[in-house]
Structure formats: structure tokens, C-alpha cells
Amino acid sequence: MEYVLVSACLLGHPVRYNATARRVASPVLAGWRAEGRIISFCPEQAAGGSVPRPPAEIVGESGAAVLDGHAEVVDKTGKKITDAFIRAADMALAYVKRYRIRIAVLADGSPSCGSTFIYNGCFSGVTKAGEGVVAARLRRNGVAVFGEDRLATAKARLSELLAAKIIAGTSG
Q1: CB distance 58 to 113 below 8 Å
Q2: Which CA distances in Å does 66 have to 39, 59, 60, 74, 129?
Q3: pLDDT for 48-63, tens place per residue?
Q4: What is the β-pairing status of strands 4-7 and 38-41?
Q5: How many angstroms separate the CA atoms of 37 and 33, rounded?
Q6: CA 114, CA 125: separation in Å to the nearest integer?
Q7: Which residues pair with 41 in a beta bridge?
Q8: pLDDT in tens, 82-113
Q9: Which of 4, 8, 78, 155 is exposed most, by the fewest CB atoms within 10 A?
Q10: Is the CB of residue 85 less than 8 Å from the CB of residue 79?
């Protein structure tokens, strides 16, 4: 079975910093759910983050810079929480390895999950191009990471992976 890692908030779980969900109503997600492909995961909650919790942003470039020790994750109170975000990324990677996941659909904008944009680190509501810490860790380990607005592209990638399995003589 080819599983897809999906941010829990996108599936309707109220795990975001403000105890809300960011549910995405999509036939793609509905189909994957019916097929049993979805592995739901909230990295921040898995790493011990409470719900609700203060919002957090990356101060510096993006998630890759956090992993390399060149940027920090800070919450709105000024507390450095970089270690928790790296732990969350490592936990997401453990899921990926356990289930042999090659595709992830993550919540854009998040300092963990953002795949194309994150907030600028000033808590001003301004975004910038970049990725979150989890997205960076997964990409470094060969996972194709997509934001919720790229579900059609994620579905196409899954179809490619499934076709390759059929050609190789395996199922899934």
C-alpha cells in the first residue's frame, strides 16, 4: 500500500496552534481516505505541543536553515522552541520510514508543515517563500511534499508511483 502522510488539521482535527482545524474538502483526500491510504499526523502536537499554544514562526530563512542550525523557531512570547520543531520533524520522518511513505500533503504556512510558504518571523501576518521544518526534513529524505492547494499534483505523483509498482510486478 502506498500511504500518504497528511497534516491532521487538513483532515478536520482541531490541532492547530489556536485549537482549530483547516479542513480541506477534496475528492482527492476523500478517495485516499476510502482507500485507507492516509496517515494523519500533526508534528507539533506529536512533539508535545499543547492545543492551544502560542503561534510560532521561523526567524531566519526557512526549515532547512533550522535543521542546519542557522535559524530558530520562536513562539509569539519570544520563547525559542527550535528543539521541539526538530523533534517533530524527526517524528514525522519516523512515520515516513515506518510506513514507507513517499508523498506528504502538509498545511502551507505552518513553521512545521509549510511546503511553499511560511510566515516571515515577525508575527506580522506577512508570508514569504519557504518551507517548514518538517517539510524540509521529509524532502531531504526523498518524500515529495505538497501543500493543500496542490492535491491534483500529489494525486498525479501517487498515480506514477502506483504505475511503477505495477510495472515492477508489485501491488499497492
Answers
A1: no
A2: 25, 9, 8, 11, 15
A3: 899 999 999 999 999 9
A4: parallel
A5: 6
A6: 15
A7: 7
A8: 999 999 999 999 999 999 999 999 999 999 99
A9: 78
A10: no
